[in-house]
Every structure is written in C-alpha cells, then in structure tokens.
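User: Modeling request: complex.
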Amino acid sequence: MPLDPATQKIRAFDQVGTRPLRPDGLDKVTGRARFGADATAPGMLVGRILRSPHAHARIRSIDATKAEALPGVKAVVTSKDFADRSDDLRDILVNIMARGKALYEGHTVAAVAATSASVARKALKLIKVDYEVLPHVTDVDLAMEPDAPLLHDDLITSGVEPVPTKPSNIARKIEFGHGDVDKGFAEADLVVEREFKTEATHQGYIEPHACLASVGSDGQGELWVCTQGHYMVRDVCAQLLGMDVSKLRVTASEIGGGFGGKTTVFIEPVALALSRKAGRPVKVVMTRDEVFRASGPTSSTSMRMKIGVKKDGRITALDALLKYQGGAFAGAPVDYGGMAGVACYDYPNIRVVGYDVVTNRPKQAAYRAPGAPMTAFAVESVIAEIADTLKLDPIEMRLKNAAKEGTKSAYGPTFGPVGLVETLKAAKAHPNYKVKLGKNQGRGIASGFWFNFGGQTCVSLNLNIDGTLALAVGTPDIGGSRASMCLMAAEELGIPYENVRAIIADTSSLGYNDVTDGSRVTFASGMATIHAARDAIKKLCGRAAKVWGIPEEAVVWEKGFAKPSGANAGNFEPMSLKELAANAAKTGGPIAGHYEYNAENAGPSFATHVVDVEVDPETGFTKVLRYLVCQDAGKAVHPSYVEGQFQGGAVQGIGWALNEEYIYGADGRLQNAGFLDYRIPVASDLPMIDTAIVEVPNPGHPYGVRGVGETSIVPPMAAVSNAVSHAVGIRLTESPMSPPRILKALGEQAARKAG
Amino acid sequence: MHNFDYHRPTSLADAAKRLSGEAKLVAGGMTLIPTLKQRLAQPSSLVDLGGIAELRGIKPEGGGLTIGAMTTHAEVAHSAEVKKTIPALAVLAEGIGDPQVRNRGTIGGSISNNDPAADYPAGLVALGATVITDKRRIAADDFFKGMFETALQDGEIVTAVSFPRPDKAAYMKFPNPASRYAMVGVFVARTGGGIRVAVTGAGPGVFRATEMEKALAGNFSADAIKSVKIPAAGLNSDMHGSAEYRAHLVNVMARRAVTACS
Amino acid sequence: MAGTHVKTTINGDSVEYVCEADETLLDVLRNRLALTGAKEGCGTGDCGACSVTVDGRLVCSCLVLGVEAEGRNVATIEGLAQGEHLHPLQRKFLEHAALQCGICTPGFLVAAKALLEKNPDPSEHEIRFWLAGNLCRCTGYDKIVRAVQDAAAEMRGGRHAA
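Assistant: Request completed. Predicted assembly structure:
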C-alpha cells in the first residue's frame, strides 16, 4: 500500500520522484551503447531473406540448388528446415517462414547465409520459387464477404453459434457488455450513430530488427537481439528449432524502439536456423523496406459506434460493431481494443461486438495499447459530437459519465481508485484550456484508458564488497526504466542512487520474465525490485543480529543502516550497508535479495488530452498549435521519463491522426514502405507537448505506481478530429485526416450549405 | 550497389573525357546514390564533380546572378548575394528536403535530373534563367523536356545557371507531407521580360500557367487569378494526392505567391 | 575490382582504409572502422540516424560514398566528447531526459552541434527546422528541443567550455 504504515498518509519519498541521470545515459550520448546491429563475431556470415512478391500465392516448389552451389553461400533454409507443429506456436512458425503458401507480400519464403552481402544477394536471386498467384484481399470489410479470397481453408470462426460449416476469413467473433441496449436507446433523448475507418500504421521504431545468432555443433546457441522480451525469444526460438530451452542463451541488446512491435519474433528463428546449418555466426538485419512489409503493423478497422444520451448528457446506451483485420493470422486485438476503447465511462447498457479478420497483410503486432486507439477514436468522436449538439462543455459531459472507483467496467471488473476524473479536472484547470482561439482554429478533447499488465517477473539484487549493489532485471529497458529501478532499490535501502547499478540480465543469468509490454516494467519489475530490496534488508538485519548476538526481530533497517529496534534490544552502533557488505564473508557469505512472482493488481491509467489546431481551409493542412496530456501515473518514480512517455505516445497518436497510413495497391502490395512516403512526425511539425502528471495511487503497488507507457496513444486521433471539427465544422470519421481528405470534406460541407 | 569505378577529376575537361559508355556523373548524390542502392541504375563508373572548384560559387553577373552547378542548396539558401538579389530563390532552396539533403544536393544535379517534384525547375522557368553547359547556353524554357528528361545531350555537363534579377518574385510550395518534395510548387516572377508563373510537382514536368500569366499581366494581384482553374487532366495522381487536388493547390499556391510578391 | 585506398581524418585522427567504390561512408564507419555510433535506420537518407559532418557540413553518411571522404574532415558522435568531458549538448540531453531508447541520439547530437556552430542563438522554430532531418519516435521532440536551447544558452554564456 502506498500509505505510510506509521502515519497512514501518502508516503514521503527521499529519492523516488526525483530526476537523476539515467545509468545507461552516458553510453547513449557517446555512441558507445550497443544496439541490435552493433555486434560482430569472428567468422560472421551475412543472412538475407527471400520474400514473396505476391500478396497471396501457393508455393508449388522452391529450388535452391543453384544458390547452395554459389561460392560463399554457407547455408540456405526454407520451411523444410523447421519441423511442423500444431500448437499455439504454429502461426508464428508459419509467419517466420511460409509453408505451402505465401500469405502476404513480404512473407519469408527462404533465407541464405553467405560470406558477404553481395554474395547473399546473388544467392537470393538464384533461388527459384514457383508461385501460383492467387486472388488476394487486403480490406477488412471485403475480407468478411462470403466470396472473399480465402486465406486458410481450416479457419472456422470461433465465438459463433451455430458453429459454421465452412471456413472463412473471420477468425473469431467476440461480444461483451451488460444491460439492454435497445431499452437504453429507447430511453435516450439523443442518439448518434457513426461509421469509422482507420488504416494500418507501423510503430515506426528507428532501429530495424537485427540479431546475431551463433549455434555450435554441440547444439548450444547464443543470440544477441534487439527485443522487448529475450525470454520470449529464447522460448519461442528453442521450441521452433527443437532445442532444449537451456541450450539457448539470449542477450538483449539496447533496443532502438519497440512500442510493442518487438514483442514477437520475425528474423530470429531464421537466423538461428541459418547459423545451425552453416556452423558459423549469422547476422540478420532487416532493411527499412522489410520492416514495413514484413514486421507487425497495426490492424486496420471498420467500425460502427452508436451512443444514446439523456439531454443532460448522461449516457444511456452504447452499441459498437468493431471489425479489425490482423493480417494473415488470427489475433487482431479487437477484444483488448474494444474493452479499452469504451472503458472511460459508466454505461447502464452496453454491447460491443467485434470481429477478428484475416487478410493478405503482414501479421499484426502490438503498438502501444493495441487496438485501443481505433475504438477510442470512434467513442470519443461520438461523445464530442453529442456534447456539441447538446451544447455541453466537453469536459463537463465526460465528468458526468466518468468511470470512478466502484464503476463496473464494460469488460467486467469493478474499478478500484482510478484517476479519470482527476485528469479531466487537470485539463480544465490548465492554462491551455483557456487560450482564446482564432479563425480556423479549434480545440478538441478526448480521454483514454489502458489496463496495464502485471506478468511474470523476477529480479536479483546482489551486494558488492564495497556496499554498492548489482541489480539484475529481466525486462529490456525501452524507455529509461533502469533509472526507475535504481531509484526504487535506493529508496528501500536508503543508499545513494549512484550506488545501484542495474543491468538487463541474459536469459541464463536470471529467471523467466515476461516481455516488456503492457506498461508493466516500472510497475512489475519495480515492485519486484522493492521486494527484492526488502528481502536483502531482512538478510542484512540478520547479519547485524548475528554480529550483535541479538534476535533478528530486534533489528530494524533505517535509511541505509541496521539498528537495534529499541533500547531493550541493546546499545549497538548502527551498521551501514557498506560495513555489512564488507563483512559478508565472515557472517555467512554473499548477501543477496531476490523476488519472483506473477504480478497482479496493475492499476489502469486514464488520460485526458487537449489539442488546439489550425486548419488551412484552402489546402486542408492541419497545424497543431498546442497539445496537453493529463495522465494518471499513480506515483511518478522518475517524472522526466513519465513525461517522456506522455509526449512520445501523444506524438505517435498525432502522426496516426494526421498522416500515417499503410497504402496498398490493387495488386496487394504496400506502396509506401519507407520513411519517404510513410510520414512520421518530425520536430518542425509540432509544438512543445505540455504535460500534467496526476497521481491517484494504485493500491496494488507499494509506491502506488501505475504504468503509463500506453495510454498516451489512445486519445490523440479523436482529440485531433474533435479539434478539426471545431476549427472548420467538418466531422472526419477516417484516419488519417490528411489534407486531401479535409479539403474534400470542406468541399462537401460547402456544397451542402449551398444546396 | 554493384561495383563501379570512381573518379574525382579536378578539371571539367578531365570530367568530360571520362564520360563515355556507361559512366554517370555524380553531384550531391541525393538522387544517384539511392538509385544505385536500389539497383535501378548500374553505371560502369561514377565521375564525381565535387573536386572541380570552378563549378562552385555564386557570382553577381549582369545585374543578376550566376550560380555554379555544384553549389549546394544550403549555400544558395544562406548566400547573402542570393538573399539580396533573388530572395525568392533562397526561400526555394531553403525548403528543399532537410538540412542533411541541402548540404549535399546541388542546383546542377537537381535540374539535370528534372524530377517532376523538384523545386528548382519552377524557379528557373519563372525567372527565365539560362542553363550553361560545357558546350552551350540553353534557355530554361527549352531545357526541361519532360519527366526526368532534359535537353542535355550525352556527355554534356551543366556548369552553371544564370539568373536575371527579377523586380518581384516569390515561391510558394505545398510540400508532400512525407518526402517534402513539392506536391505543388508555384514560382511567380516579374522581370523585365514580363510575368511568369511556373508550376512544379503538379504535372509530369514544370509548366507555365499561361492563363494566369495573362491575367496577372493585366492586374498583378491574387484576385486576378482567383477564378483561373487549372485543368486536372494530365496532372499527377499518386498516393498522396489526386490530380484534382493538385489542380486545386496550383491555384491556391499561385495566389499566395502573388500576394507574397507585393 | 580491387578496393580504393582512402586517407581521411575522422574526429581529428588521421585514418586510412580500403573500401569498395559502392560502400557508403556509413558502411565504412560501422563495418571497417568499428565506429558503430552512427546508425542505419533507413538507408535512404530519410531518418538522419546516420548523421555525421563532412568538413563541418551535416550530411547523411548512408548517402555519402566511402571514397568521397578522401582528404576530408569527418566528425562522428564518437568525437563529440573531449576525453571524459562531455559536450554541453551531451550533458543537456541527459539532464533533460531528451532520449528514451537512444538510437536517434547520436544523429541528433551531431545535427544539433552543427546547428549551434552556425547559429549560436537559434529560436525554437529554427531548432525544429534544423532538426527536421532527424527522426525520433520516442520523445515527441519536446525535451530534445529544450536540451538544445539549454545547451545553446550555456555555450553562449561561456561556462563549462568543453
């Protein structure tokens, strides 16, 4: 509990909440930090991948004999080099190497390892693949039609009664809610129903996927890889390659961005298979083109959102139909997205129906609050339209309906203490909310939510002879979390922050950790660190007790010192951690603390965003004038990095709202597979991103911490759309709101006014 | 890329000598190097013009300016001479790409390539510039032929561009949101020779909006061209904008350029 | 085709290497000289993660040929600090938390240094415009701009000269 047991007040921290320099910072500002593509090994080969040029094709045969014979080629692998399986790794197996069918343009069909890039390239050209091109489908609505090209002839929709007799592209139907929406709409004074479409986007991490695999003839392997979860990589690769898990050691490099896109495997099993076959280390690095075509973009969606309200703004019912395509395999996050997208409000009646659809596109992967930005776009746009129609202040309307402690969420659980109301109030109180706007300028509000996850986590804390600490965590640091871990360890032990050094341990040096995702690291690894520190403290007290000859229970730990608990315990000089560490050999040996668990009770994080835009009515260009993120962090361990998460997620959302989209041609091929034509925001596009950290402590964490990394990408699409609507009076229901789309809507508006 | 010979001659004569067969000139490399990387071209040798001092520099000449072919966009953008004599040209150069591109891209390279979305062609045509090669002088109107096509003969090297001084000039561009190439760029100039409105980005190559020029000759104001519609037929349609959108933008950018001239 | 022998200066040190004509300066730095600070984010000059300066001019090293470095002065991220003294930009990036994953940071530092050498007192608009060739996906640029502003102020004040 975040309350101080002695005072029953919110605990005052000595170090948590300050802004020290991050421990990995020096390496990152000097170029010394080593990322995925920065490793080399003696005898290293270059691995390159042959990818399908067709969006959908049967692979009749692959003839690699000429490639194998080319001097300098040391291995060629195809699906023959991977044993088939029928468990829940099957989809990943097929995604990393096509079996029988190429399911999307860019799908891996074969791979080579050669002594140089130019030999590898020549070898790829020599591989003869006999394709039978099939009709393809990339649009989610078209993929659901009964006569759509079929990707998997064994895909039967789950979640539907009666069970379908024929396969389709619909992997699952989900449904959740409560109450009676028809009754709810009948009671409403105003009902608004709109359709929305969002296009697929990519996480856009600046570092392409990269790894260096080395498998010896004894079957032991090493893998250096940029990933959000090296234990996941180890377990998945070991299983796909038929290796004992213990035989594969994976080291997580520094990672140049992930945002969810590196929570799975793409090139890693292939690199390991090549290395095993070649008997030499193999480095595989994706080009930017490959990243766009063959890693994991988001779903694209087609949605219908219907909300009914009383004239005072109180919601009576919400009914949503969500169609998400997740690329060539089941798993589009229509469930998480649907649940999170509606989570901000208290609904007497709600029904959400969702479809997880497959198409001839790369398999989707998580992108910060997976699935939520799209549904939230729909919900928050309709809420805004209702507020405008009823002439209600958008924040007041949201306050009326806001989820609070005790609200039963649409997806089931009842909320504990949560901070949506606080973020709405913080937004309203902020100076940005009072700025007077001019011609063609408008303000948009939107709120958002993400569950945040716990997950399997463990850490190990070891004392060094000089009283400094080595903290080994197992969750790759994608945003600066090592600083927060050190702050928490230092706080518990009462020692200087600089005395704690955190590393990301490799998979052989620490127990299993779930991937860095779900905004879980500061929460779960942080909590594990706190408990490990308390474990170490217990042992330290035991050592002091031994030295003093008193019972363990008579020793307490206070700000870095072991002390007798009272006058009765004895009159001993306190012993510092440094002294105890120096004496460890004599008192029982090395001193360490550790903690392993499946973290639960991660507190959700709510947010409210306010954006001011100016639209140029002659070109449709939208300029962001002002952006404010108010978000609940529970307890901000390192406020600078909390702000950084708010700002980074908001800017990704702005890109999604205004510019970013996957553009497919009629041939099913991606047309904009590079940063030239897929535009992520640059510095000159943006103003400063203002932030307000709200702290409603999460009772599930000793310090009240809530994860913050994901919620910030949820509100921007709707916030920007609402702002554009207030600027020039048009309501856009498709992302991105690019200049031609805005201009077209303005033209239609003018025609309506004239007609 | 593939293997090629690389030469960096120090004189124009030397460069010309090496330009036979499958050899290609490289200036700033902003187009050629990506092209080589994608294997869309496989020259046997590259002749780098970067070592020829006489190809760089900005000189006042005949009331206007002569800009050496190897002068970078950054140099043009920051040149006190250009800002004094043809400030609109500095604005044009400043808007090309980003700082890294502007430090490498050159005026000679840009016009020799004649990308339909490049900015310089509009500037040269609107200002009535003259392209100077190692063999002759070519008026801008005659230099740009079509998409990626110019009047240059095989082995002919652009050495400089000479610009007259305009009375009034301005460049307005609506950049492609991703690449910052011109989705539509309009350069309006009033020189001793008359009024010119040159449009880039919208069509397969730079063109003059002659109807606008006529209207402006009578009344040099944005109002004068308010209702001059550019037909969408023949304009570029791509993933970032339709021909109709571009046609609309031409009018908008032209009006803004005229307003900026005053 | 035998490689070309190149003699150049990198971060003030005289350096010689042999490279193929079709190798970029980025390839040479990373693969031949083990200077992996410059990163390949896109290979097409669109992300700026490979930024270096050549004769003081900010360029994308993925679009410069290795052979073009002959006789020039190349500066990379590895040369920004002077021994153990960080450049004010490096210090300010750390203080302002202007980096999260850090992959774009070398490019930004090189670009920002080039900016401040030409313009010691840039406005926010000028900073954003000058850094428009460097992509960051983590920070939203806010803290990067603040770090550059703060470093510029310190450098103008003359304190902590690097």
